[in-house]
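User: Structure please.
Assistant: Input sequence and predicted structure:
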Amino acid sequence: MDAEESPRDQPVSPMAAEEAPRIVHVDPTPPRFPLVTNLVRLLRVHQWVKNLLVFTPVLAAHAMRDPRSVRAAILAFVAFSLCASGIYIVNDIYDLEADRHHSQKRRRPLAAGDVSVPVAVVVAVPLVATGAAISWALSPQVFRLIGFYVTLSLAYSYVLKELALVDVLTLAGLYTLRVLVGGAAARIELSPWLLAFSMFLFISLAIVKRVSELRDVRDKRQEGMRRRGYSAADLEVLSIVGVAAGQMAVLVLALYIQSENVVHLYRRPDVLWLLCVVMFYWIARVWLKLYRGEMNQDPVVYALRDGGSYAAGLSALVIAYIASR
């Protein structure tokens, strides 16, 4: 080959031509900071968006202009995020073998071999310890609630996730604990309406995640989910329960709008009825997208990339603002 002649100028043999379609292009440029990138993936920083639920009590109580409440909620968010990331790592270690056989979870840093188990343990321990220290600085109640979250998360990882229906109830409880932590940190008394609404909504979203996994099992003609209490035959009944739970959340919201509490917080409470329409639309849309095969991941993560979810969220904020004026 001449020095000026590139490989692409050379003739291609028939055998090479036959093999060409099988060649997959791989980007030869590695990440500049692979360890940092893998650690960020290990911590699942994108999942921290779930911890924004700690701000729910501040928003619901119209305490956004109270610096102390906002500052406490921010610290609670940091504490919860650190502890949650530590628990994610523990969960990934325990589920390592199962994740390696999962179509999507096998790409996680531990399952893919990008991060070793000893390194993961060294990262997880200080995360949980720091989160616990921040929660104690906020108040003993916040510390106890986050401690309960850690305990329940570990119980879920080792036992509860294998029990049908108990797993989704536990996941819903873990979501609701975020709301409780936000209330305790900001010292805001939570309304029973808010807690009931949260539980039903989070049960629906937890079931969305399970149904998504069951659909994957069914499509691959497998009998059941690895280390889960479900089989493909449960898909229909589980979907019914999930949709019903979501609409129960809409019903609780409607009952709340008729309560006396609303009159003290909103000048035009009748406008809030539009929130029921928005919630019904969003929940129905999530399930519709799931059954169309357009959502194969955590519904909260999906919502971050979904234009319809952003439109629904913006509409809800506008409605609440108009109702309060």
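Residues 191-325 form one domain.
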